[in-house]
Amino acid sequence: MDWFLYVSVGECWDPSDAQPAMYGEVQSPQYPKPYPPNLQEQWDLSVPEGYQIRLTFTHMDIEPSAGCYYDSLTILHDGKVLEKFCGFENSADGHHPGNHPILSPGNRLTLIFQSDSNNPERHQNVGFSAHYQAIDIDECSAPTPADGSGPLCDQICLNTLGSYLCSCHHGYELRSDERSCVLSCTGGIFDEPRGHLLSPGYPNSPPHGVSCQYIIAVERGFTISLNFSDTFQIESVDTEQGRTCPHHWLQVTVPGRKPTKLCGAESPGLMVVNSNTVQLDYKTDDEGPEQRLEPGVQHPHCPLPGSVARGRVTPLMTEYLYRDHIFVRCDDGYKLMMDGQEIESFNTMCQSNGQWHLPLPECHIIDCGEPKPLLNGGVTFLSGSQNQYLSVIQYHCNEPFYSLAGDINGKIFTYSLTCDKERRWTSNTVFPICIPVCGKPTTRISAYQRIIGGSDAPDNTIPWQVMMNIEGGRGGGIVIADRWIMTAAHVVSNQGVTASSDTVRVYTGLTDIKRDMSSPVYAASVHVHPQYNNPNYVDYNNDIALIKLRDPITFDSSVMPVCLPAEGATYQTGNMGLVSGFGITKTNDSRMVLTNKLKYVYVPLVDQETCTNSIKVAKTKLTNIPSLTNNMFCAGIPEGGKDSCQGDAGGPFVLSDSGRYWAAGIVSWGVECGQQGTYGVYTKVTNYLNWIHKTMQEN
Ligand code: ARG
């Protein structure tokens, strides 16, 4: 028969005296904005008795100084300084906690944050943010106090949340001091078909003045036999009348018969009592020498339980007797495993057959599972493996197509995570984001070579170029974000009607239509500039449109975005721009040939006056020539021969700034193609930055 006794201690709380919190947060004033000067702020943290405080910093950025002389966060316990922090991660000066939590020796912790009045540099430090939680103290594994007050518990110590409980071996009772154990022998009815009875304190002598009563009562129809072990000894006195038991005895009483008193050094051996009940009274008085009583069959001892790797067996004793319990707890970062299954807790009992009722469990290392995946990035192990306890991983983006989004306040974060004992990935940084790298193709066009007068673009050199098919017509487009294509309004709009998004096919990563035409990406919506109004193809003002894609593009060498112009980007006459497209390559003979291969050509920016003049001249010879506005610019060479042409519209005209290409223009129109004295006209993208950002944000 197994049994457990649950003891619950109830206490009454004064409602005004509310329990301290189990966890909480602390932040410097105005966090995450920079903290003000001349601060002196104090926090007194407390958790309930029996707990420690674990304080973990999620971020710290305090003006660094040697010895944290100027600004600092001081951590005190009981008036004693535990730590004084300042600086930020990897700062040369200062003292930063990194990602090590701080454990208070008791249940209280004081934080004092101070900043000085003058600050040489612009004050940009944001202070700190931390959270704390109550951590249970395992009082049972604390060493015996040195003050001689003895161990916490006489016999068995059980750790509980926030406290501990003492308990006693079978045959003992916990005294009112709740820590020491006394013998107890008046106890209950023995009704099991088989059992053992031991004299109190066995194998030691019983104390004086013990009076124990044991009642054995088994089911009707069974009879009891008592089998005394050979080691039987109860003090006796031999008189003339024979042996008497004046001070100590064991009396056997069978209902309806005269009781028998037993003592002496000879075992009564087997006693068949022919009854289903029997009462045993064991008595020692205050006189007479202490004697040894050893009735009963061999006392069941269980073997020493041994040890559990990465775990603790409690209580640790020199011997374990019948009905003793042992508990196993695993070290931090390890879990209890039995028969391949994780178990919540473990205890086993010493049975009457001298065997433990369960074998010891094992402690296996815990793991935190797969960390949250990072879109367009991944993780690498800085230490550890298989997401196990204390593994440290780091996030990275898929270079060179993606890079980590700008670090907060210009501080470099490591974006590393540690697997903690609660099986959570913890970090002192925010979750990273991978943003696409713009304007940096993996392959560069090596030489200036000579659409009209252009050359075949090698693979991966103009990855932002897309080819578009709208209701059968060909046009160009420019990748500017993972879901956005920029193009010319006249490519997606005809007689004031915008093409419906399901007629738009976008082909990315193409350099050779015959070789690598694959399935297109589809448009979700088409956004023509609201001021574009070109019913008869004589007004190309505001020739710009944006196409939102149904699904985002994952960038690689063949598809990458180009950068948008920086605020205030300049167009310097004479600078060479790169134009590309799948448009017409020859116009001199009567055949107009649309190219199967992506072509590019470098053409210089032409000043506005030269271009206006060239258009004036054209207007004298031809009708229906559109006008040049300030939302357009021209590019080309006076002698002609290099230009964009029909089919290229909507495609990119890019300029390069320190190795990075940005979208300066969109192929829009021209008076014929590549003729002497004419230029290609492009939509001036800088004039539309606000509209572009607004449209992308709102859709
Ligand atoms: N409007 C033409 C098209 O739809 C683009 C013309 C560019 N012409 C030039 N000479 N650059 O494809």
Automatic annotation (TrEMBL):
Its main location: other. Serine protease component of the complement C1 complex, a multiprotein complex that initiates the classical pathway of the complement system, a cascade of proteins that leads to phagocytosis and breakdown of pathogens and signaling that strengthens the adaptive immune system. C1R catalyzes the first enzymatic step in the classical complement pathway: it is activated by the C1Q subcomplex of the C1 complex, which associates with IgG or IgM immunoglobulins complexed with antigens to form antigen-antibody complexes on the surface of pathogens. The keyword Signal applies. PROSITE patterns: CUB (PS01180), EGF_CA (PS01187), SUSHI (PS50923), TRYPSIN_DOM (PS50240). Ca(2+) 1 binds at E63, D71, D116. GO terms for cellular component: blood microparticle; cell surface. Disulfide bonds join C68-C86, C140-C157, C153-C166, C168-C181, C185-C212, C245-C263, C330-C363, C368-C419, C397-C434, C438-C563, C611-C634, C645-C673. This is complement subcomponent C1r. The modification (3R)-3-hydroxyasparagine is found at N159. GO terms for biological process: complement activation, classical pathway; innate immune response; zymogen activation. It catalyses: Selective cleavage of Lys(or Arg)-|-Ile bond in complement subcomponent C1s to form the active form of C1s (EC 3.4.21.42). Keywords: Calcium, Complement pathway, Disulfide bond, EGF-like domain, Glycoprotein, Hydrolase, Hydroxylation, Immunity, Innate immunity, Metal-binding, Phosphoprotein, Protease, Repeat, Secreted, Serine protease, Signal, Sushi. Its EC number is 3.4.21.41. The gene is C1R. It comes from Anabas testudineus (Climbing perch). Ca(2+) 3 binds at E235, D285. It comes from the Eukaryota. Ca(2+) 2 binds at D136, E139, N159. Core component of the complement C1 complex, a calcium-dependent complex composed of 1 molecule of the C1Q subcomplex, 2 molecules of C1R and 2 molecules of C1S. The C1Q subcomplex is composed 18 subunits: 3 chains of C1QA, C1QB, and C1QC trimerize to form 6 collagen-like triple helices connected to six globular ligand-recognition modules. Within the C1 complex, C1R is a dimer of identical chains, each of which is activated by cleavage into two chains, heavy and light, connected by disulfide bonds. Residues 451-697 form the Peptidase S1 domain. Residues 300-365, 366-436 form the Sushi domain. Signal peptide: none annotated. It is found in: Cell surface; Secreted. InterPro entries: CUB_dom, EGF, EGF-like_Ca-bd_dom, EGF_Ca-bd_CS, NOTCH1_EGF-like, Pept_S1A_C1r/C1S/mannan-bd, Peptidase_S1_PA, Peptidase_S1_PA_chymotrypsin. GO terms for molecular function: calcium ion binding; serine-type endopeptidase activity. The keyword ATP-binding does not apply. The iron and 2-oxoglutarate dependent 3-hydroxylation of aspartate and asparagine is (R) stereospecific within EGF domains.
